Amino acid sequence: MKTILVSAGVALLVSFFGTPLIIKIFLRRGDGQQVREDGPAAHSTKRGTPTMGGTAIVIATIVGYLVGHVTTGFSLSASGLLVLGLMAGLGVVGFVDDFLKLYRRRSLGLRSGAKLAGQCTVGVLFAVAALHYPNVYDLTPGSAYVSFLRDVGPAIGVLPFVLLLILQVAGWSNAVNLTDGLDGLATGATVLVLAAYTLIANWQMRNTCVGLPVTVHCYPVRDPLDMAVVAAAGLGACLGFLWWNAPPARVFMGDTGSLALGGLLAGLAVCTQTMLLLVILGGLFVIITMSVIIQVGFFKVTRRRVFRMAPLQHHFELVGWAETTIVVRFWMIAAFFIALGLGVFYLEWLPG
After folding, report:
1. Biggest CA pair distance of the chain
2. Least C-beta-crowded within 10 Å: which of 12, 152, 194, 199?
3. Cis peptide before 224 (omega within 30 of 0)
4. pLDDT tens digits, one per residue of 93-141
5. CA neighbor of 329 nearest in space, from 188, 191, 190
6. What total of structural domains would you count in the chain?
7. Is residue 352 part of a domain?
């Protein structure tokens, strides 16, 4: 528990005090957000706002994690390092995308194919590594199963597992990226999911199957406590960043932050054996992603639109909702899905 608190606290402080430095650097360079011409008119005022603030989130998460371990003497784990590696790898892909946007002075960076290739490459490396590094109980960070509250059904094999992980990594990194359209929206929603994973992983640690016969009321997870530390470090980093990202934002996380945070969520789901549970916990991200899929699919078939604009948050902007109203209400929706997901997770522990 001490490692969790230290990691979260250090990450929060690094992010809180480090983000203004990033703001000053980009303001001095004259680098700022490029705004889509077909976007809501209110977004024109955001042109020039420093972006790539997600760099502070990634650095703060890693620093918080390492300092927490060093100061408390808690050993680093393969699971923790792999999840942070996934986060950092996708952050690099996002950083290249953001850099190209600034360099070209337009809202388009990497081509969609190139970005997807980068996400898939990082996902493959994570998937392959997750099936290695067994501990003394022969548990690896990931397992070749589909998981909900724990692994379910028969093993699916290495190749299907790698393909599933690619879908998981690309899907969640893009989902957070699509949600990052309003000041503080993606950051606040991610804070809630990471808080849930801190609780889930801590509970798994207290009810581990390691060294015991596997029963329905235990979790054969390799490093549950370290997953709680990783989630707490990410939580602290996001909270520190949210101070500067809340409406009206002084800095945007950019693809650097959104892809990295999506990777963090995907990695936590894999290493805590809760891949399908994340669909509930991250319900807001799922809804926003589905709004884009529905909009594009319906338009290709009928040449008509379901929403005034996708992702969904921009539809409500065009309807006339204030940005802060949308953000707060979407945070409430995210909190509802967190409550639902935690309820499902703890349901089996209720008497009867």
Report:
1. 62
2. 152
3. no
4. 999 998 888 776 666 667 888 999 999 999 999 999 999 999 998 999 9
5. 188
6. 1
7. no
